[in-house]
Amino acid sequence: MRSHNEVVSEQFGTTAASYLTSAVHAQGADLQDLAVYAAAYPHARVLDLGCGGGHASFATAPFAAQVVAYDLSAQMLEVVRAAAVERKLSNIEVQQGSADRLPFADASFDVVCTRFSAHHWRNLPQALHEAARVLK
């Protein structure tokens, strides 16, 4: 029997590239709002939790010192890495893992954001606890 993480990673791995160009994911007033919010925290360290195609990472990167695009799917992270290079966003790094077990120190991010991903998390309350834990 496969684990939840394996199923989710496989499910999104096969369609990772489509998330980059999907109008639903690549556009929206919420991305503009996120950019405005990030601009209020210049030189911040940002965590994009469940980054998917990386659109929240791309919206915050122009204002941040560092953006960590974090996702369960290795294929999704490869799409984000390639798009960041293409967009010349050298402050985006990718890291793979589950939202409910973040490998970051307490209070290590100035901004934590997520978009269209929480419904895929295995343990939403634990993931929210983890997000709060790593947020300054």
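the 2nd protein, sequnce then structure:
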Amino acid sequence: MPEYGLTLLKALAEEEFVPAELEYARFLLQRNKPEELPDAVRVLTRMTARKDPPPEALRMLADCKYGGLGTKPDPDGMIVLLRRAAKSGDAEALGKLAFCYEYGRAVLPKAVNLYRLAAERGNAKSQYKYAEFLAAGTAGGKPDLLSALPWYRRAAEQGNVQALFRMGEFRLDGIGFEKDEHEASRLFFLAAKQGYAPAQHAL
């Protein structure tokens, strides 16, 4: 973005025009210049202090608090922000919150439930994770590959590399689907193109 364009975007953001605030903060975070990150945090903090902030602003500020971008790392503050975004049904926030619960922030059943909610709202990573829990039987109950397969498929259709790889394995071995080496190769190739090493090896 030309610097003049950034100046205009910042001016609109300072007028508290929500689309400009989001775009300005997103741009600064993506550009990742240490001297600019605090300004992104300032704008996002202002946005999240409002009554009904956009879930994206909550998620971006949560990412800042998680990685210490433009602010001190604050895992507890990150969880609070993700919970607020998740309450609105935001799929990405639900998935991120589930990840936090899965890896030490709370108990596994809560993580599974959050992955399910995010999966139902179309988040590909969560669809894959929920499928893995179902297939392994850690979602409560016995392993249930039959219930997991549609979630793997939905995640693969969105290009999730892990789901593409798993679907390739199922097609190669004839698990849940008719055995089809050509389709398996296609799925492995799609994952391999994204740099996924297990798919590259399988291909």
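The chain has a mean pLDDT of 90. The chain has twelve helices and no strands.
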